[in-house]
TrEMBL record:
Entry keywords, A to Z: ATP-binding, Nucleotide-binding, Transport
Database matches in SUPFAM superfamilies: P-loop containing nucleoside triphosphate hydrolases (SSF52540)
Gene3D superfamilies: P-loop containing nucleotide triphosphate hydrolases (3.40.50.300)
Single GO MF descriptor: ABC-type amino acid transporter activity
Organism, as annotated: Pseudorhodobacter antarcticus
Protein name, entry field: Amino acid ABC transporter ATP-binding protein, PAAT family
Amino acid sequence: MTAAPPIIELCHVDKYFGPFQALTDINFAVRQGERVVVCGPSGSGKSTMIRCINRLEEHDAGTITVDGILLGDDTKDIRAVRQDVGMVFQQFNLFPHLTVLENLTIGPIRVRKMDKAAAEALGRKYLDRVHIPEQADKFPSQLSGGQQQRVAIARSLCMEPKIMLFDEPTSALDPEMISEVLEAMVELANSGMTMVCVTHEMGFARRVADKMVFMEAGRIVETAPPGEFFTAPKSDRARMFLDQIL
Ligand code: ADP
Ligand code: MG
């Protein structure tokens, strides 16, 4: 059996904000269907790294390839990559003046030129998938944080992405709502979605991660299978980090 080629590949990536170097020599590959969990202290560059993958940030050196597209200045390519890559943020970023179903259909209608009935069918399918079909006609403010985040996941899935990026999707939630969102993410992982998740939910990481990435001060310090990472991290930095959060 030959391994699939990487669907995401970062080679020697550097990123600066003014004089400040946020990423240094990042080398990172994700294969189709792989689930990668990225962790590390606050300010270590986790968000910056995953934001570079869908060009919310521009890298300054090295190369980033996503689904065969080399990320450069070509806006056509950037649009193509954005269609391939869904992203879920800590803040749900739903449109407050649109219903849940309208939040889900606006992308398919505007970007994919789908007709309204087809978009609504798609929206309801993914609302079912995250177990809140009964919330279709409510407004975001009428939902709990956990429900809003599941709508945000469903909204991304409506664009039928090949890759899903998550940036601390449960950090803004009350504790009792975290598990319902993680459960939706586990189900997505089990469906075969390629996922890169920045999270400190190590129970989730143990359940779904094929690979753990630990970052510190803008560098990837350690990449290991979860079994190894949790029981015998190679670096002192990772061991100290795990001691603090576990
Ligand atoms: P993490 O997600 O691991 O907490 P970030 O990727 O958000 O870390 O940030 C990495 C570093 O880059 C931090 O020192 C942060 O202050 C800095 N940084 C992030 N975004 C910006 C920005 N837009 N302008 C200036 N500095 C930034
Ligand atoms: Mg972050």
